[in-house]
């Protein structure tokens, strides 16, 4: 990776804890999660549902306030949405009453800034969306909508891109295409990326490191380094290293689930016996 | 913004589940659709058959004019007496437009404000429902006692009839919170006001148009009803006057004008909804 000239990690999560106050009582979503994302790194977060992946990501974006702990960008505490951090949501999340162009200009409208049209055109070209600017979102396929969301997120040149299960709703082929696109754009811009995903394949293909979370409460269970050179090809996905890594991560996720279920069952049996 | 920090729930249907207001947007914005020349021709043919058939039947059975005038007589009355009816049409329009403007404005503002405060909304909603379901015509005699036989009681009645209708539909619209879209705007640092104008208002727009359409039709009904109750002018007053004088062709001419007015109102909001809120259809 690029030479470090800063003593701070790009994005530093320190002892992040988040409690949701719900009607049925307090819910500890994430518990003392610490993670340092370096500049120009791609980090994936995987884990069973309920492990607080999304909560952790939303906290990094400043959309959630932590109950305790803190998030720092270049050593500066993040207290709310930050102009250098951009978010790609599940299901594209386009505004259906706006044309594609108007959707992409939306961040600039909110910030009261002039859209960087040259950069936007370049991004549109890159993701293969030229000529679609005047269309409405509903006229585009799911994959194309997600590309628009990607262009929108990168339009104001953020230094950190957060992605919340961005391709979960897409079919396997479109998903692979999007993964290549992300890598391509990454190699161009060296944007720091944190990605929440359900797909271990996707995590391995894209990431420098993979964070595995365990559920209830959400904790960081393990962090794996993915050692392949970029640009990565689909070929690496067939290697033994990837196979082993996939297996390890899977058993960490599934094993966590199974052992928790077993504990619950034992506890139930005990209470029945007594 | 009380719920901004809650667990994001994308499965929550953005159209607010089944709780659609009085009318459904799909009936308004989707409308009858574009018609082919053939369909238009058949619709015209049906009109000719029905009107011509009525003309012939009434003629053949010698039905007297005071029971049911022939279509040709109604058309003739519409032409010859239009100059007598026109000023009354003007009066009705003044009452409708001013009453509706007041009612709709107040209704829209109230809807926008109370949806920001869920508690206030819970308290106010039953009273709004009461206003929607109570026929405002019932208040007209009272309003006449207080305000006399001029425009005022009618304008107040129209405002009271249309305002709650606009408000209840707009409230449904503003309540359709899509937490993901609001989070999107917030991630760019949007203020509460920006979120309102750029996310909440456009999302509410289709339901607002439904409210405006239903509200204005209710306003028309109330205006005509109020005119029938008291006062010496307006299309409703013409209806009572012509029927008491057994001038049935003129009576039906006024009914015809009222139908056109209703259709015109529908068309205006149909086209506005199509232009500004068709993204949802």
TrEMBL record, chain A:
Give one Pfam family: ABC_tran
Q: Which CDD domains match?
A: ABC_NrtD_SsuB_transporters
Q: Keywords, A to Z?
A: ATP-binding, Nucleotide-binding, Transport
Gene3D superfamilies per the record?
Answer: P-loop containing nucleotide triphosphate hydrolases (3.40.50.300)
Q: Which InterPro entries match?
A: AAA+_ATPase (IPR003593), ABC_transporter-like_ATP-bd (IPR003439), ABC_transporter-like_CS (IPR017871), ABC_transporter_ATP-bind (IPR050166), P-loop_NTPase (IPR027417)
GO molecular-function term, one example from the UniProt record: ATP binding
- Top-rank taxon of the source lineage equals Bacteria
> Which stretches make up the ABC transporter domain?
11-240
Q: Does the keyword ATP-binding apply?
A: yes
Which family is this sequence assigned to?
Belongs to the ABC transporter superfamily.
Protein name, entry field: ABC transporter ATP-binding protein
Originating species? Aquibaculum arenosum
Organism taxonomic ancestry: Bacteria, Pseudomonadati, Pseudomonadota, Alphaproteobacteria, Rhodospirillales
Automatic annotation (TrEMBL), chain B:
Q: Please list the residue ranges annotated as the ABC transmembrane type-1 domain.
A: 89-273
How this chain sits in the membrane, per its record, is: Multi-pass membrane protein
Could you tell me which SUPFAM superfamilies the record lists for this protein? MetI-like
Record's subcellular location: Cell membrane
- Show the Gene3D superfamilies listed in the entry: MetI-like
| Superkingdom, natural source | Bacteria
Q: Which residues cross the membrane?
A: 40-63, 96-115, 127-149, 155-174, 204-230, 250-273
The record ties this protein, via InterPro entries, to: MetI-like (IPR000515), MetI-like_sf (IPR035906)
List the signal peptide residues.
Answer: none
Query: Where is it mostly found?
Result: membrane
Alphabetical keyword list: Cell membrane, Membrane, Transmembrane, Transmembrane helix, Transport
Similarity-based family: Belongs to the binding-protein-dependent transport system permease family.
Its name, as the record gives it, is ABC transporter permease
């Amino acid at each position: 990776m690029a030479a470090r000239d800063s003593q701070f990690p790009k994005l530093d999560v320190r002892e992040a804890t988040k409690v949701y106050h719900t009607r049925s009582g307090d819910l500890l979503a994430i518990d003392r999660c610490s993670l340092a994302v370096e500049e120009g790194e791609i980090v994936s977060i995987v884990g069973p549902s309920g492990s607080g992946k999304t909560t952790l990501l939303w906290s990094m974006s400043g959309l959630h306030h932590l109950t305790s702990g803190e998030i720092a960008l270049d050593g500066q505490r993040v207290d709310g949405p930050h102009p250098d951090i951009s978010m790609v949501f599940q299901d594209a999340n386009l505004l259906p009453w706006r044309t594609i162009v108007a959707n992409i200009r939306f961040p600039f409208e909110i910030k009261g800034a002039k859209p960087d049209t040259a950069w936007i055109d370049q991004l549109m070209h890159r993701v293969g969306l030229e000529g679609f600017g005047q269309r409405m979102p509903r006229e585009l396929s799911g994959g194309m909508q997600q590309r628009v969301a990607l262009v929108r997120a990168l339009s104001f040149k953020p230094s950190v891109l957060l992605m919340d299960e961005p391709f979960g709703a897409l079919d396997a082929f479109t998903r692979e295409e999007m993964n290549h696109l992300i890598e391509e754009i990454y190699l161009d811009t060296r944007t720091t990326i944190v990605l929440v995903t359900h797909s271990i394949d996707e995590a391995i293909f894209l990431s420098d490191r993979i964070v595995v979370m365990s559920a209830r409460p959400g904790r960081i269970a393990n962090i794996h380094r993915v050692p392949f050179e970029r640009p990565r090809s689909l070929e690496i996905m067939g290697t033994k290293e990837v196979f082993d890594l996939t297996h390890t991560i899977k058993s960490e996720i599934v094993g966590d689930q199974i052992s928790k279920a077993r504990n619950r069952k034992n506890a139930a049996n005990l209470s029945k016996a007594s | 913004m009380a719920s901004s920090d809650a667990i994001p729930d994308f499965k929550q249907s953005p159209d607010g589940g089944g709780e659609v207001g009085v009318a459904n947007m799909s009936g308004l914005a989707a409308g009858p659709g574009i018609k082919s020349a053939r369909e238009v021709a058949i619709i015209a043919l049906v009109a000719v058959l029905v009107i011509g058939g009525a003309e012939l039947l009434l003629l053949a059975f010698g039905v007297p004019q005071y029971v049911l005038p022939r279509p040709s007589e109604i058309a003739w009355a519409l032409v010859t007496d239009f100059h007598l009816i026109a000023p009354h049409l003007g009066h009705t329009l003044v009452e409708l437009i001013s009453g509706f403007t007041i009612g709709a404005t107040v209704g829209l503002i109230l809807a926008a404000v109370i949806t920001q405060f869920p508690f206030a909304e819970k308290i106010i909603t039953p009273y709004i429902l009461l206003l929607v379901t109570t026929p405002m015509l019932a208040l007209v005699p009272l309003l006449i006692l207080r305000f006399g036989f001029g425009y005022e009681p009618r304008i107040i009645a129209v405002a009271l009839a249309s305002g709650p209708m606009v408000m209840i539909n707009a409230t449904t619209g503003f309540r359709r919170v899509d937490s993901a879209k609001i989070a999107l705007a917030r991630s760019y640092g949007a203020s509460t006001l920006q979120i309102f104008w750029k996310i909440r208002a456009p999302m509410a727009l289709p339901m607002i148009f439904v409210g405006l359409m239903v509200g204005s039709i209710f306003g028309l009904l109330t205006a005509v009803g109020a005119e029938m109750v008291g006062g010496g002018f307006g299309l409703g007053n013409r209806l009572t006057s012509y029927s008491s004088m057994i001038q049935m062709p003129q009576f039906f001419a006024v009914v015809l004008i009222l139908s056109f007015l209703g259709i015109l109102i529908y068309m205006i909001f149909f086209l506005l909804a199509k232009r500004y809120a068709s993204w949802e259809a």
